[in-house]
Amino acid sequence: MLVAAAFLPHPPALVPEVAAGAAHELADVREACAVALQRVLEAHPDLVVVVGDDRARSTYAAGSAGSFAGFGVPVAVALPGSELDVENASRRAVGLPLSLAVAAWCMNRVGPWPSVRAEGVPATMSAPDAVTLGARLADSADHVALIVMGDGAATLTERAPGYLVEGAEQWQKAVTSALADADTAAIAAIAADDARRFQAVGRVPWQVAAGAAAETTPWISELLADDAPYGVAYAVARWQRASA
User: Which of 40, 55, 124, 243 gives 20 to 30 Å between its CA and that of 149?
Assistant: First the structure.
């Protein structure tokens, strides 16, 4: 059963060494991520599953490694987890995708963590498949928490990576509202074509969370941060089952 979820963005600039002199620009988002993760731990899950964008469907054990060397800094990270998880996992450099490497960096700021694994999901996954995966993850332990990595629209301004696309701001407001309100139906209904048009890589992970949460109500939900300093939407939210 899903007991809690944290929704985090994954810009590499969340890592201060990567952001360098611009680290202050995401300071509030960075701290909101720490708060969201702490709320997950307070729900006392026995399994934490991290879900993030990847090139293909994949699974990573606790202890799986990644690096931000591709961004010019020799910062290595590894997925945390219980000592047993990490001892049993290969420490080879499996090359966590960006979404999960940022998750690992954020998670290592708080803790300790129970059993952890990560699931990589491709942007091509359909909404029904994402929802089905979420339901399966929710059933994988008695008390499951999700850490859901996803950036929103990257087309909010002329300086955004995807430039300015008409309708992006209105679309993003609706998505952020759904995350803030734990509106699983609205999240499950996000159209893949819209996500592609606005270059929002969070669509599939969000829909995995919607599938995991659909059978568990009511939810206590909270929007902890909502910013777009580079024309990309970075929302931080958390959900907790009311009785958790």
Answer: 243
3-class DSSP state of 227: strand
Beta bridge pairs of residue 44 = none
Residue 168 tokens, joined: 């992006």
Residue 202 CA to residue 180 CA, distance in Å, equals 15
CATH of the domain at 160: 3.40.830.10
Number of domains in the chain: 1
As given in the structure block, the two tokens for residue 156 are 């909010």
Strand residue runs (E) in 54-190: 58-61, 65-67, 76-78, 115-121, 144-149
Identify the residue whose tokens are 């979420």. Answer: 134
Q: What is the pLDDT along the chain (244 residues), one digit of tens a residue?
A: 999 999 999 999 999 999 888 879 899 999 999 999 999 999 999 999 999 999 999 999 999 999 999 999 999 999 998 765 655 555 444 689 999 999 999 999 999 999 999 999 999 999 999 999 999 999 999 999 999 999 999 999 999 999 999 999 999 999 999 999 999 999 999 999 999 999 999 999 999 999 999 876 789 999 999 999 999 999 999 999 987 5
Q: What is the DSSP letter of 21?
A: G
Residue type (1 letter), 31: E
Chain mean position to CA 65: 17
Range of the domain at 154: 2-241
Peptide bond preceding 112 in cis form (omega within 30 of 0): yes
Torsion, CA 130, CA 147, CA 3, CA 125, rounded to 10: 0
